Structure formats: C-alpha cells, structure tokens
Amino acid sequence: MAIKSRDLASGHGYLEIAEIWVKAGQPDKALAWAEHGLKAFPQRPDNRLRDFLVTAYLDHQRNDEALALTWVQFDENPRLQTFSKLQAVAGKLGTWPVQRERALSGLDDSIAREAAMTNRWKPKPSVPNQSLPVDIALWEEGLDAAWAAAHRGICDRHLLILLAGKLEAGRPEDAVSLYRRVVPLIVETTLTDVTRRYLHAERGLASMLI
Questions:
Q1: Which residues contact 136 (CB under 8 A, 6 or more apart)?
Q2: CATH class label, 1-96
Q3: Across the chain, what does the average pLDDT equal?
Q4: What is the pLDDT of residues 91-114, one digit of tens each?
C-alpha cells in the first residue's frame, strides 16, 4: 500500500489503492480513496474511477450520488456506452423510464442546437445528425424508433445498413429504401478515396521526374 500511495500522478493510482482496500474487506476506506482521487484530478477525471465510485455509492446506499456521477459521464460524452451506463444504474434504482426520457429529450435538444448553430466556418444551419438516436434505438431493439430517427436527419451509413438488415424480414420495402439511401454515400466515399490515391500517386510521380 505504501508503494502504491507514492504513485498518485493520476486517478488510476487512487483506483488501484481503492481496489486493494476492497479486497482487504475495507469498503469505507476504498470509497474514501476513490473520492480523493476524483477530487484530485477535476480537469482530467478517470472514468474507471468514476465507475468504481458509482458501484461504491450504490453499495453504500448513496443512490443519488451514484446516479449523478453517471449523468456526468453521459453529459460530458453522450454516446451509447454512457447511455447504457445510465440504464444500468437507473434500472437498479427503479427510475429508468424517467431517466431515459430525460436523456433522450436532452439529446434531441443538443442535436437541434448543434444543427442550428452557425459561425464563421458554418454560416448556415446543418442537417441534424441522428446517428446516436438511431444507435440507441437499435440497442433497445426499437426498430420503429430507429426508423423514425433515421428520417429526422443524416445518419452514419453503417447504422443505416444495420437497421436495413434488421428490417429485411418484416419490412423489406423499408429495408430497400435505406439501402438506396446508403449507396450514394458509399459511391461518394469510394470516389473520394480513389481520387485521393490518384493525386498521391501523381505527386509521387512528379517528384520522381523533377
């Protein structure tokens, strides 16, 4: 323990000590070390340490703090992984329907704000990017929700292909419409890659001739 306590240059060092205390049957000391670690690095927190704390808070019946710390991760980096963390914690607390609605509503607002935002480099509003709502809906196996989200804006083509594959059996016409939407994106990417390789080869040949 003394050796470990000398290496506290990051939150992970505190996490290792907290895990040692857990194995030693000292959950209160483990929690204290984890909290010290989180406070020590507010500008570069370790999400592994946060996850440890969430579990520790739940074990200590500090449910509000567990949920709040999980929300911090989702708000900082909204994606499927942090959404699933919310689901796991809120599910244990029996509050998932409310927390899910809050997460999806907040995500919709964030997407709308980002699309509407304009600046020097983006003088006009953009089409909303619905990739994350589609990803979440697919994870929840909500094909109708995924379909609706995919038609509210642009979406990652890999997610559109995945959705199309899931729709093939029961909704073949919808699946075909998604494949038709994806094909131009694939062609455009392929042409861009070919052009990039051609220009690179042309520059290489030109340098050899100089």
A1: 80, 83, 104, 107
A2: mainly alpha
A3: 89
A4: 999 999 999 999 999 999 999 999
